[in-house]
Amino acid sequence: MSTFLEKHIVELLQDRNEKAISLLYDHYGDTLFGVANKVVRNEELAQDVLQESFVKIWKKADSYDSSKAKLFTWLFRITRNTAIDKLRSVNTKSDKEIQMDVSDVYNLGVESIKPELMDVKDNLDKLEPKYQIVLEALFFEGMTQQEASEELNIPLGTIKSRLKIGLRELKKIYGATAMLLFLIFLI
């Protein structure tokens, strides 16, 4: 690309002239799509990345400094970083998705519930009083953590810590499955 055309595109871009985007797309679109596709390895995602990149380019037009980088280098970096962000986002999202067919939550039968173990109020006595008070306030009196903090005059962070430790101690008594059911019934 000629230096004259590059300067013209930069001027249009910094003047917020929409023609800059079409010129950028015409002259750099295929190459930037290739960059995005190389990172995400999926044409549909690469198209999304390219679109998001052009939006960022438009928004960041004032930040381009020709003394620091050529226009293509600046465009390349924005596109590559956007592609990496997209890839991370997709990977994080897929990691968080629950696999219903693999999950045991829906496979728990009635035989998994042991009524003799669900006497939580009785077993709270096995915990230290400081944990009992917090669990009773949260689960049996229906307080939020903030309300329990204010009512019991205990810092919120301490409420959270005591809840975590108290539940861990109850888990030792009931086992993981029973604790999960207990928490589900309370919700």
Q: How would you name the oligomeric state of the polypeptide chains in this document? A: single chain
Helix content: over 70%
> Would you tell me which CATH topology of the largest domain applies?
Rna Polymerase Sigma Factor, Chain: A
Highest-level CATH class of the largest domain: Mainly Alpha
Q: CATH superfamily assignment of the largest domain?
A: RNA polymerase sigma factor, region 2, helix turn helix motif
List keywords for this structure.
187 residues, mainly alpha, Rna Polymerase Sigma Factor, Chain: A, Arc Repressor Mutant, subunit A, 2 domains, 9 helices, 70% helix, elongated
Describe the protein's architecture and organization:
Helix 2 (19-40) packs across helix 4 (71-96), helix 3 crosses helix 4 (71-96) and helix 8 (156-174) packs across helix 9 (176-186). The protein has helices spanning 3-14, 19-40, 43-59, 71-96, 120-123, 129-140, 145-152, 156-174, 176-186. It contains nine helices and no strands.
In short:
The chain has helices spanning 3-14, 19-40, 43-59, 71-96, 120-123, 129-140, 145-152, 156-174, 176-186. The chain is mainly alpha-helical and 187 residues long. It folds into two domains: 3-96, RNA polymerase sigma factor, region 2, helix turn helix motif (Rna Polymerase Sigma Factor, Chain: A), CATH 1.10.1740.10; 105-186, Orthogonal Bundle (Arc Repressor Mutant, subunit A).
